[in-house]
Design a protein that fits this description.
By secondary structure, the chain is an alpha/beta fold. The chain has two domains: 173 residues, Thiolase/Chalcone synthase (Peroxisomal Thiolase, Chain A, domain 1), CATH 3.40.47; 192 residues, Peroxisomal Thiolase, Chain A, domain 1. It is built from 13 helices and 13 strands. A five-stranded mixed β-sheet has the order 1-7-6-4-5, with helices on both faces. β12 and β13 form a beta hairpin. α3 packs across α4 and α8 packs antiparallel against α13.
């Protein structure tokens, strides 16, 4: 009998302290207007003493398990997606397993940058579909604030701390991930990087003096990569799912920058009402951003049983990931009733998707041409301001 991974529980955890744009005005040369215009961010949560990736993971997992009515001892596997573990060794996943009391669970940490949660979700589904495990926790968590240079306004205004988790349980009724795409563009590995502190450049007085232990980002390279991969990967997974765009109730993108999200929505021809955005309240929380947005979407009633949601992320690596998921946390529908569009209307679906893909590609080409035409003007304006 085929098995499916069904999300039955979810929970989030964020630090108590909130750092607003107005707070940042007193720390660096910036303004609320400058930050909001360029990123859409108004505030972010910052970890305080005793708040770490492990503690936030445990709190989020406890909430997810309580929602599903599952005891920690029943969990088979814990996957923690993060680039900011409490320690380089041991893996933070083992700390979470211990503090949660999941005595029978295996645990590992997954490092895929901001796409880590979607990578983890796909991995968990595979473990369930093979029959190896029945209950898997997937966590996306980051404590980015200690690794941010608080004198660099191009990065410190963007990032925040937080975590969220979901519980996947085995189901014999079709649900969960319908299609997915994982990818990596390794030639741009240095576009988002902590230059110092790893084995290539161990921590030293020179690393400290050059501030190479802080996160650095090539914003333009990341922006171009994100705009393209978000559009392409969403198009690909919706087509592969056997659904039409009209069957998708919500898109939950990685919350990196509101302008990137808006650009991708325009290229896809999607109204912003169908896109979950909460970056204004959390900033970019990397691997935590998609599950945090998922939790809030459920809380706000934007996801109902039977809905279809698209997760799409991009980040360090550079990596990307997207998945179409059937949201059925309470009671799965009968196998003979699902999914009707794919089985009965496949020819019509294929035609509609072909038309939609053509429209998406045309909009992307027009916007790329417009951005290329504006580049010299923008460069000239920057030179004038600099002078």
């Amino acid at each position: 009998m085929k098995r499916y991974g069904r999300i039955t529980g979810w929970g989030k955890a964020v630090p108590e302290r909130i750092l607003t744009n107005h707070d940042l005005e007193g720390m660096i040369d910036t303004s609320d207007e400058w930050i909001v215009t360029r990123t859409g961010i108004r505030e972010r949560h910052i970890a305080g003493p005793g708040e770490t990736s492990a503690t936030m993971s445990v709190e989020a997992c406890q909430k997810a398990l309580a929602h599903a009515g599952v005891d920690p001892e029943e969990v088979d596997l814990i996957i923690v997606a993060t680039s900011t573990p409490d320690y380089l060794c041991p893996p933070v996943s083992s700390m979470v397993q211990d503090q949660l009391g999941a005595t029978h669970a295996a645990a590992f940490t997954l490092v895929a940058g901001c796409t880590g949660f979607v990578y983890g979700l796909v991995t968990a589904s595979q473990f369930i579909e093979t029959g190896l495990y029945k209950k898997v926790l997937v966590v996306g968590v980051e404590t980015l604030s200690p690794g941010v240079d608080w004198t660099d306004r191009t990065t410190c205004v963007i990032f925040g701390d937080g975590g969220a988790a979901v519980l996947l349980e085995a189901s014999d009724q079709p649900t969960g991930i319908l299609s997915c795409e994982l990818g990596s563009q390794g030639k741009d590995w240095d576009a988002l990087i902590y230059p110092g502190g790893g084995c290539a450049k161990p921590f030293s007085e020179k690393v400290l003096r050059n501030r190479e232990h802080y996160l650095r980002m090539d914003g333009r390279r990341v922006f171009k990569f994100a705009a393209r991969t978000m559009t392409d990967s969403v198009t690909n997974v919706v087509k592969a799912s056997g659904l039409t765009w009209d069957d998708i109730e919500l898109i939950i993108p990685h919350q990196a920058n509101a302008r990137i999200i808006e650009l991708a929505a325009r290229r896809l021809g999607v109204p912003m009402e169908k896109v979950m955005v909460n970056i204004d309240r959390y900033g970019n929380t990397s691997a935590a951003s998609i599950p945090l947005a998922l939790c809030e979407a459920v809380e706000e009633g934007r996801l109902e049983p039977g809905d279809h949601v698209v997760f799409v992320g991009f980040g360090a690596g550079l990596t990307w990931a997207a998945a179409v998921l059937h949201w059925q946390p309470e009671e799965a529908i009968r196998a003979e009733d699902w999914p009707l569009p794919a089985s009965l209307f496949r020819p019509v679906t294929q035609v509609r998707n072909a038309v939609w893909s053509t429209q998406v590609a045309a909009r992307a080409r027009l916007q790329d041409a417009a951005m290329a035409a504006m580049a010299p003007i923008n460069a000239w304006q920057r030179r004038i301001r600099g002078g």
